[in-house]
Structures are given as C-alpha cells and as structure tokens.
Amino acid sequence: MTAHEIDYRIYGEEMQYVEIELDPQEGVVAEAGSFMMMDDGIKMETIFGDGSQKDTGFLGKILGAGKRILTGESLFMTAFYNTVSGKKNVSFASPYPGKIVPIDLTEFRGKFVCQKDAFLCAAKGVSVGIEFSKKLGRGLFGGEGFIMQKLEGDGMAFVHAGGTMSKKVLQAGEILKVDTGCIVGFTQDVDYDIEFVGGIKNTVFGGEGLFFAKLQGPGTVYIQSLPFSRLAGRVLATAPRGGGKDRGEGSILGGIGDILDGDNRF
C-alpha cells in the first residue's frame, strides 16, 4: 500500500467525530478547521496541497496547491504524524449535524468523486485532487461547476454528509434523480449529468430549482438530506433583521407580540 494503513472509530450520532489511531510514523491529512483533539506525541504540520506526492520539488507543490484553489479550498492542508513509539490518537469533527462516512478506496478501485466541501480527512498518501466535468450542462447548472473533488489511492478517506445519509447501489442502466446539492459523492463508474425539470408550473412555482442531477449506474452513490447551502439558507431566512427581536417561527404572538412590546417598525 502507498497510503498509510490507519485504524479508526466514529463517535456520536448527530454531531459525529472520527478518532484515528496512528501507529509509529503513520500520518493523516485533514482540511483546515476540522481538527478536534490529539494525544501528546503527535506532530502537526501545515503542508501545501495534500502532501501525497513525494519529491515533486517546489513547482510540484505549487501545482498541487493550485488544484485546491480551483475547488475553492485553502492552499494548505494539515498533516498529523505519530512521532513516538506507541499508538496515538487524533480526532476530527464534522462541521455541522450529519454523518461521517468512511470510504475505503480499495473497494472502489482507487477513486471516489465527491463534492468539494465533503472531504474531512484521509490517510497520508491519499491524493485529494480535482475532477473536471466534460459535460457542459453539468458544468453550467450542476451547482458545483465544472469541478468536483476526487480522492485517489489505496487508503481510508472520510467525507461528511449533512443530516441523514443514504447509500444507493445502482445497477447498470439504473437511474436516480437527485437535488444537485444533496449529492455527497459517487464511485467513478457512475454517469453524472444535469436534467431540466421541465413544465411551466414546475419551473415558476415548484420552488425546487430548475435542474436536478441524473445519476446512472452501475456504481454507488451517497446522498445527504441536509446540504450546508440549504441549512445556511434556512438560518438566514429566520434570522432577525435590523437588529430587532425575533420570537422564531413557533411564536404564538409573532408580529402582534412585537407591537405589544413597542417593537413596531413600519
């Protein structure tokens, strides 16, 4: 194996975190901001890109970091190494309520394609690159643009799915239609395209967007019930405006309560 062979355990239900057990000299790479805690004896190092390529020189490191810019991620990733003789643990937390999904790349012939913000961490040696879409429709209307992330190698990787996660195994020719934001990732054999919803009423009054993703098997697809964009939209929609008080959607008084409180803004 070229990637480090790590052991792990996932804790929690709604707000999960993954604990990675590192043998001496083993390492794991993670997105900046996902670190939770680590044992004494683990060394943390900030690196360009994912650090999967060895002896690429300065130019190779710059190109690796440049790939991350195209996916909207930071130039840097963080690597954690066990520098002592015994086993040590390091943990990474999910960014918002959902499930952490372990991906064994050896089961998917060494490649898994995911949304650019789904990746959490991976064994040292796993390559975190970019996947260009060759289809114009997917690039223009897919919500993720022409580029998604690809995880390559023979080690373990971990991605995050918002809300409840659904795993669908598609047979050859089987089609699944999904909201574009609800896709976590899929295996390399899945054909991914964008399809217009169609119909005047659906387009104008449907409220579900003009396009959905069409995934065609064979392959495995991971779906999330709560994309971060949807969560953020709901939070913004219910946030108080103008610095005033907000009783929330479930308030019995609602706007009448504001008038009684003297908080009547017209």
Question: What is this structure, in a nutshell?
Answer:
The protein has helices spanning 57-70, 136-141, 200-205, 228-238, 255-260, and strands at 7-11, 17-22, 27-30, 35-38, 42-48, 76-82, 88-93, 98-104, 111-114, 119-123, 127-132, 147-152, 156-162, 165-170, 175-178, 183-187, 191-196, 211-216, 219-224. It has 266 residues and is of the alpha+beta class. It has one domain (7-230): Double-stranded beta-helix (4-Layer Sandwich), CATH 3.60.160.
Structural notes for this entry:
The chain is of the alpha+beta class and 266 residues long. It has a single domain (7-230), classed as Mitochondrial biogenesis AIM24 (Double-stranded beta-helix), CATH 3.60.160.10. The protein is built from five helices and 19 strands. The chain has helices at 57-70, 136-141, 200-205, 228-238, 255-260, and strands spanning 7-11, 17-22, 27-30, 35-38, 42-48, 76-82, 88-93, 98-104, 111-114, 119-123, 127-132, 147-152, 156-162, 165-170, 175-178, 183-187, 191-196, 211-216, 219-224. The strands form four sheets. Strands 5-6-3-10-13-8 form a six-stranded antiparallel sheet. A six-stranded antiparallel sheet has the order 11-12-9-16-19-14, covered by helices on one side. The longest helix is centred in the N-terminal third of the chain and has 14 residues, at 57-70. 33% of the residues are buried.
Q: Separation of termini?
A: 67 Å
The CATH C-level class name: Alpha Beta
Task: Look up the CATH topology.
Answer: Double-stranded beta-helix
Number of distinct beta strands: 19
What does the largest sheet look like?
Answer: 6 strands, antiparallel
Briefly note the structural class of the backbone. Answer: alpha+beta
Name the helicity range.
10-25%
How many helices? The count is: 5
The radius of gyration computed from the alpha-carbon positions, rounded to a whole number of angstroms, is: 22 Å
Which residue ranges are poorly predicted, with pLDDT under 50 across at least 5 consecutive positions? 201-207, 247-253
The figure for the number of domains is 1
What is the spatial order of strands in the main beta sheet? Answer: 5-6-3-10-13-8
**Overall geometry:** globular
Query: What do we call the CATH homologous superfamily?
Result: Mitochondrial biogenesis AIM24
The second-level CATH architecture is 4-Layer Sandwich
The fraction of residues assigned to DSSP E strands is: 35-45%
String of helices and strands? EEEEEHEEEEEEHEEEEEEHEEHH
Mean pLDDT across all residues, rounded?
78
